[in-house]
Amino acid sequence: QLRLVESGGGLVQPGGSLRLSCAAAGFTFNSYAIGWFRQAPGKEREGVSCISRSGGVTNYANSVKGRFTISRGNARNTVYLQMSSLRAEDTAVYFCAAVPSGDVCYQGDHISSRNYDYWGQGTQVTVSS
Predict the structure, then answer these.
(1) What tens digit of pLDDT does each residue of 96-109 get?
(2) Mean pLDDT of the region 106-122
(3) 37 pairs with which residues across the strands?
(4) According to the model, what pLDDT value does residue 93 have?
(5) Residue 28 and residue 77: Cα distance in Å, rounded?
(6) What are the Cα distances from residue 94, in Å, to 9, 28, 59, 73, 83?
(7) In contact, 12 and 124? CB cutoff 8 Å
(8) Residue 46 burial by CB count (10 A; 0-12/13-18/19+): exposed, middle or buried?
(9) Residues 6+ apart with CB under 8 A from 65
(10) Can you give the pLDDT at residue 74?
(11) How many Cα neighbours within 13 Å face the side chain of 113?
């Protein structure tokens, strides 16, 4: 059974950092592209970042570019999202998602939730003083 479990969320002050983890189980991890998404109260789900199956291609939303870094450890079946210089507007529930495709993560592309098949339950990130 395919599972994605996010962790690492919490409360952080503006300007602080957090590292989110997405642990995968039940599928061949390096055959799946992974995306990170977030959803704030009253807003639509937003694509934040994605990483290709090999990790060789990454993409970021303009709102997080230069502040967030996505990486994957295929040996550990885990994808990470390192978030720095956090702002109040980064407050949201963060989800990771997976899809068995090599054609969904390209630099400069819109990161669409429609391209992903499997989803975790999310982890809350709150940026507040």
Answers:
(1) 999 998 788 998 88
(2) 93
(3) 47, 95
(4) 98
(5) 9
(6) 8, 23, 16, 19, 12
(7) no
(8) middle
(9) none
(10) 78
(11) 14
Single-letter amino acid, residue 87: R
Residue 68 near residue 62, CB atoms below 8 Å: no
The residue whose two tokens read 């807003």 is 43
DSSP class of 26 = S
Q: How are the residues of the chain apportioned to helix, strand and coil, as percentages rounded to the nearest 5?
A: 10, 45, 45
Q: What are the Cα distances from residue 80, in Å, to 9, 41, 43?
A: 12, 23, 24
Please report which helix (H) or strand (E) contains residue 102, including its range.
Answer: none
Check: CB of residue 81 under 8 Å from CB of residue 92.
Answer: no
Tokens representing 106? 């390209």
**Cα-based distances in Å from 44 to 11, 38, 112:** 22, 9, 11
The arithmetic mean of pLDDT across residues 59-78, rounded, is: 94
Say if CB 39 and CB 93 are below 8 A apart. Answer: yes
Q: Which residue has the tokens 């303009």?
A: 62
